[in-house]
Design brief:
Elements: E1 2-6, E2 9-12, E3 17-24, E4 31-38, E5 45-50, E6 60-61, E7 70-75, E8 80-85, E9 94-102, H1 108-111, E10 115-116, E11 120-125
Parallel strand pairs: 2-11
Antiparallel strand pairs: 1-3, 3-8, 4-5, 4-9, 5-6, 7-8, 9-10, 9-11
């Protein structure tokens, strides 16, 4: 599956942003999707996941660090997963990557994706 992330940009602290990741090449609904981010000089970090449709009805998961500010959703008809980010903080500045793994549980959080998008840069100014 090919993934194309978009929607990043320069945003002021406190603002909102919606990232999109369009998938092609396979049956999108069979893929658990996730977003990760990597800030300059830091390791890649998991920020959101949503399981494939056949497992727990598309269950979502977030780390405590973003719970309540990040919302992941998917539109299987459009082969797209979204990441809505509210109340942006300067520490949210990073390159955001979408990832996919076929019929995965939330193990994608630790294993990462089998497929990765190219990343989209989010810069939050204070």
């Amino acid at each position: 599956v090919q993934l194309q992330a978009s929607g990043g940009g320069l945003v002021q602290a406190g603002g909102s942003l919606r990232l999109s990741c369009a998938a092609s090449g396979r049956t999108f609904s069979d893929y658990t999707m996730a977003w990760f981010r990597q800030a300059p000089g830091k390791e890649r970090e998991f920020v959101a996941a949503i399981t494939w449709s056949g497992w727990s009805g598309s269950k979502t998961n977030y780390p405590d660090s973003v719970q309540g500010r990040f919302a992941i959703s998917r539109d299987n008809a459009k082969n797209t997963v979204y990441l809505q980010i509210y109340s942006l903080k300067p520490e949210d500045t990073a390159v955001y990557y979408c990832a996919a793994r076929y019929r995965s549980t939330l193990d994608i959080i630790s294993t990462g994706g089998a497929y990765w998008g190219q990343g989209t840069l989010v810069t939050v100014s204070s």
